Amino acid sequence: MKKLIVITGSRSEYGLLKNLIELLKNDKKINLKLVVTGSHLSKKFGSSNKEIKNDGIKISKKIKILNSGDSPSSINKFFAKGVVEFSKYLSNEKPDSIIILGDRYEIFSAAISASFLNIPIIHINGGDSTEGAIDEFIRHSITKMSWLHFVTNNLSKKRILNMGENPKNIFCVGSLGVERIKKTKFLDKDLLKKELKIDLKKKTILITYHSETKSKNTPEKDLKEIINALSKIKETNLVFTAPNADIFNNSIFKMINNFIKEKRNCFYFRSLGFLKYISLLKHSDCVLGNSSSGIIEAPSLNIPTINIGDRQKGRICANSVINCPPNRKIIFKKITKVLSESHKKQLMNINNPYYMRNTAKRIYNIIKNSKKPKNLKKKFYFNEKLFN
After folding, report:
1. Which CATH architecture has domain 187-347?
2. In the chain, % of residues over pLDDT 70
3. Looking at residues 56-71, what average pLDDT do you find?
4. Which CATH class for the 2-174+356-380 domain?
5. Strand intervals (E) in 15-107
6. pLDDT tens profile 316-350
7. So what's the pLDDT on residue 31?
8. N or C: which end of the chain has fewer CB within 10 A?
């Protein structure tokens, strides 16, 4: 049997991996183990490992690395602890490969551990670019450690080719999250109202703001601009979701909680789970903040996105995404625009550059049929065509 380990560290990441996990889990020729870490195991971030249990997926190992700290030195400690704990676990398990998605420091610690143990890495969502976050160079570093690459779009594939990876091991398959949306039976407004206590007959803005970990501005400064703009919006639901476990996330929590105390029609959720989040996204009038879901998933639901700042800078965007600096006057102006009836008419036929059919099944088939490499020596594949 092929022994594979999937590692997930956050609610959003699991939401993307779920369909692939199901395919691998149901294959009798694959021995699949799921490891959860990071914010999944934190009450502060909603203990999203409960969603995995509710889906009936067995968790083989929990690796707890987070505490309440949010300083750069705290994040370094979480990362270092992850390297130690993943090294212990992977040394004992000796899998044929690990499967990881994205660019979080929790995932980076697992990748480094696997690399030193000569365990092949299968990496999903490499090649993307997010210039305003530390994720940018973590993602590219993981690419150079990895054996198989599954990317969401052709631009990301070209970036990985530029990094000298073997063209035969790079597969452009689209986004797992977008594909899952296409197959999701959404909760209707009445059920969501009952579950979340939100009157969705009103206009609704879904807001997620994460730290710009490579910005000169503090999260407090940028979030203050966003909150000042939102405070002027009348008769509209403002629904906040929790930030990632990045530096200075405590300040973001505090500012959001202070804001919702002072304003009606404000709501805050630590973790909604995939189905509630995507259903709420579908029934919203706008996504605002700097979450990748506004760039990647929202266009497939014909929902406009106001993307604030540089965290997601470098990603290809559908025409439903409006990039905006963290300036209260400009943000308010953009909100007014996207909530207008005239703007809604422009959102009927959005082409999402991250969508391809059968993403999970294509990844599953390639993994299932791939042979474990005899060695993991990395040859640099120089493609002269890329530089002409």
Report:
1. 3-Layer(aba) Sandwich (3.40)
2. 99
3. 91
4. alpha beta
5. 30-37, 61-63, 97-101
6. 999 999 999 999 999 999 999 999 988 887 887 89
7. 97
8. C
